[in-house]
Each structure stands twice: as C-alpha cells, then as structure tokens.
Amino acid sequence: MSRILVIEDELPLQRALTDNFTFERYEVIVAGDGETGCRLALEKKPDVVILDLMLPRMSGYEVCRKLRAAGVSTPILMLTARGEEADRVVGLDLGADDYVTKPFSLRELSARVRALLRRSAPLRTLPDSLRLNGIDIDFRAYQATRDGAPLELTRKEYHLLRLLVSRAPEAVTRDELLNQVWGEDTHVTERTVDTHVANLRAKIERDSRQPRRLLTVHGVGYRWAAESS
Ligand code: CA
After folding, report:
1. Distance from residue 32's CA to the centre of ligand 1 (Å)
2. CATH code for 3-120?
3. How many A from CA of 2 to the centre of ligand 1?
4. What is the pLDDT along the chain (229 residues), one digit of tens a residue?
5. How remote is the CA of residue 114 from the centroid of ligand 1, in Å?
6. Domain coordinates of the chain in residue numbers?
7. Ligand 1 geometric centre to CA of 28 (Å)
8. CA 57 – ligand 1 centroid, Å
9. How far away, in angstroms, is 50 Cα from ligand 1 center?
10. Ligand 1 center from residue 72 Cα (angstroms)
C-alpha cells in the first residue's frame, strides 16, 4: 500500500483528497500547514506528497525547497491556482515533479499520482536477474549467456529489458523508456527505442518476427510477458 502525504489547508479539499485516496487504498496522512507537512514528510517517509502552494506558516515553495535540501527525493505534486503560471515554474525549479491547477478533477489528480509512483517505483523493484529458455541474464553484472555461451547485450539493452521486466505485465510507454533508459540524452527519439527493442528481440526471442515475450503495445510502447501466451 502506498503512503500519500496531503499538505493542504482548505478543509473541504483536504477531506475530499483524503476520502478519494483512502478509497483508492492509499494510506493517507494529512497536514494543514507547511511546517507540519514538512515535519511529516521527513518522519513518515511517504511515497508521494501532494503539496498546496499557498499554506499557512510555510509556503509550498518553502516546503519543497526544504525537503529537497534535506535530500528527500519523494515525488512532489504541487497544487496551484489558476493563473499562477510563474509560480508553477518556480515550483518545478525548486524540485516539484508535477503540478495540477485548481480546480481539478480527482480522476486527473489520481492519474498524476499513479504516474509519479510508477516513475519512482522502478528504483525499488528492478530485478537482478532473468532466466528463460536457456537464457540467463545477470542485470547487475551485465552478463548474459544463452545455453552457456556468452550472449552480447549492450548496456542500453540491459537497462531497457530490466525496466520492462520490472513492470510486467504493464505496458511502458516509449516516452518513459526514453526518460528512464536514455535520461537527459537529447539526441534520441522514440525511433531509437524501437531500434533497440528490435535488436533485443533478435537476441532473446526464438523468432523475433513473432515475439512471445517482448511485446509491442500499439500506439503506446512495449511490455514484457512473463508467461508466453
Ligand atoms: Ca491553500
């Protein structure tokens, strides 16, 4: 169960967020001012923080800045009012991961929270190894064999495969694969992902034209099928 910290001083909104995320099976912690929110973020180690910008005692900016300065890398989603464009930019500069403008729909907010959790989750759940059809892959040592003979994979192929396996059976978008595997490298496009997937298939699938494991999700990206269908 993911733990979510809601830092919001408007009581009706505080209640709506608590109900919504409790219903969605999160453990919800609530703070009504910036100072308390900051303390709870440090003490309770939530998986994600929803942070209102205008708060008593300590502003959302200040909370964000303090948490990042303290080395807290928890995803932070900021709530801003309409027309606070400049504020949003400052918020992102200070280390917020995303923002939602009030008034927002709870559905949209939930979707954003899930996206933030997904982005931070692979760090905790990456597999160390993979074994299938005579192929043995050690993701940490960057070593792979097929029927005992060395199988050459590039570093990017290791990273790509490890991420897809960690998220199986969920699909991972090309965009996210780019962000996670290539990071800040701006000389790559979504075609780059496709090329690497094609190479990877040629190495690990029995028939790369009819992949059973590394599957294409049309219009989205790719997914790993742990059990071939
Ligand atoms: Ca407020």
Report:
1. 9
2. 3.40.50.2300
3. 24
4. 789 999 999 999 999 999 999 999 899 999 999 999 999 999 999 999 999 999 999 999 999 999 988 888 899 999 988 666 666 677 777 788 888 988 899 999 999 999 898 877 655 567 889 998 789 999 989 999 999 999 999 999 999 999 999 888 888 989 888 888 887 666 788 889 999 999 999 999 989 899 999 999 998 999 999 875 5
5. 23
6. 3-120, 129-224
7. 18
8. 11
9. 12
10. 23
How many A from CA of 39 to the centre of ligand 1? 18
HEC assignment per residue over the chain? CCEEEEECCCHHHHHHHHHHHHHCCCEEEEECCHHHHHHHHHHHCCCEEEEECCCCCCCHHHHHHHHHHCCCCCCEEEEEECCCHHHHHHHHHCCCCEEEEECCCHHHHHHHHHHHHHHHCHHHHCCCEEEECCEEEECCCCEEEECCEECCCCHHHHHHHHHHHHHCCCEEEHHHHHHHHHCCCCCCCHHHHHHHHHHHHHHHCCCCCCCCCEEEECCCEEEECCCCC
Supply the pTM of this predicted model: 0.56
Fold topology of 129-224: Arc Repressor Mutant, subunit A (1.10.10)
